[in-house]
Write a structure and sequence with these properties.
Layout (H helix, E strand, L loop, with lengths): L5 E4 L3 E5 L5 E6 L2 E4 L4 E4 L3 H18 L6 E6 L2 E5 L2 E2 L2 E8 L2 H7 L6 E11 L8 E2 L1 H6 L5 H23 L3 E15 L2 E7 L7 E5 L9 H4 L5 H11 L3 E2 L2 E2 L12
Antiparallel strand pairs: 1-2, 2-3, 3-7, 4-5, 6-7, 8-12, 9-10, 9-12, 10-11, 12-13, 12-14, 15-16
Helix pairs in contact: 1-6
Bound molecules: thymidine-5'-phosphate and aspartic acid (ASP).
Length: 256
């Protein structure tokens, strides 16, 4: 069925050659993995939800001037994106202790951090994405100091914006991971936001109940992943009772 050239296949997405040079088609699969694919399953409907949620977030970020690779949605599972040279570093921003930070520092999950913390991980499945410092990033030539500053500044802007966006719909942004790429245009190189931002790469907790509305439902065998992602989409104003609704905007959730 797919006659397009596959450029890259990751754990949750496939990239195909796009219709124009410099473009790619990003296809969201239903596969869910954790612990670098040691745990794997197929969760029907996840790809469609992540495609839609990531589109919404990238468009909103574009509106506030964060450059992203997103161009347009093509269908339920695919979006047209700009081809970039991916920087092999995952940038994690944390607001509240959870996951590997809680483990590493002995902090209870849910402990508010004194300020947002930015961490870097080297993208390598074989090595289980080890945490690295700016020293490693520059010494091994993955990015230069200016590029690191740019990634940190953009990641913190994304964090500020998403924290407010999610709080308005009754969700706490605990942490998230993002990736950046280099875009070459008329001899000028820019760092732009790439990959995806979806409940697969964020921790999202309901403000009232602390219920997890993200991939921890899969990592920790809590069940109800699709229902949780659907609820995130619904609160963002993307789906009403499973029916796609065009741009109705976020649904404001007020506390009782
Ligand atoms: P961590 O607590 O496991 O280090 O994860 C921090 C955040 O980064 C969390 O929101 C999940 C996300 N993340 C990914 O998106 N991909 C990954 O490979 C890892 C390890 C974390
Ligand atoms: N890198 C992990 C995996 O897909 C993802 C995660 O735990 O979020 O195996």
């Amino acid at each position: 069925m797919n006659r397009r050239r596959r450029v890259y296949e990751g754990k949750a997405k496939i990239l195909y050659e796009g219709p124009e040079p410099g473009t790619l088609v990003q296809h969201f699969k239903d596969d869910a993995t954790a612990f670098n694919a040691k745990k794997h399953d197929t969760i029907e409907g996840k790809g469609v939800l992540n495609n839609r949620i990531s589109e919404f977030i990238f468009l909103k970020l574009g509106d506030i001037g964060v450059p992203t690779h997103f161009m347009k949605r093509l269908n339920m599972r695919e979006q047209l994106i700009r081809e970039v040279e991916i920087i092999p570093v995952e940038v994690v921003v944390r607001n509240v202790a959870a996951g590997s930070l809680s483990k590493r520092m002995g902090l209870d999950e849910g402990t508010q951090l004194p300020r947002s913390i930015v961490e870097f991980y080297y993208k390598s499945d074989e090595l289980d994405d080890p945490m690295v410092s700016e020293e490693h990033i520059t010494a091994f030539g993955w990015a230069n100091p200016q590029e690191i500053d740019e990634m940190m500044a953009l990641a913190l802007r994304v964090n500020d914006f998403l924290t407010g966006l999610f709080l308005g719909i009754g969700i706490r942004l605990i942490d998230f991971k993002c990736e950046f790429g280099r875009l070459y245009e008329n001899e000028i190189m820019r760092i732009i936001l790439a990959d995806e931002i979806s409940p697969d790469c964020c921790r999202l907790w309901d403000v009232e109940t602390d219920d997890k509305m993200d991939k921890d439902r899969f990592r920790r065998d809590l069940g109800g992943l699709v229902e949780a992602y659907q609820e995130v989409a619904r609160r963002l104003g993307l789906f009403v009772e499973n029916r796609p609704s065009e741009g109705s905007g976020p649904v404001l959730v007020t506390s009782k």
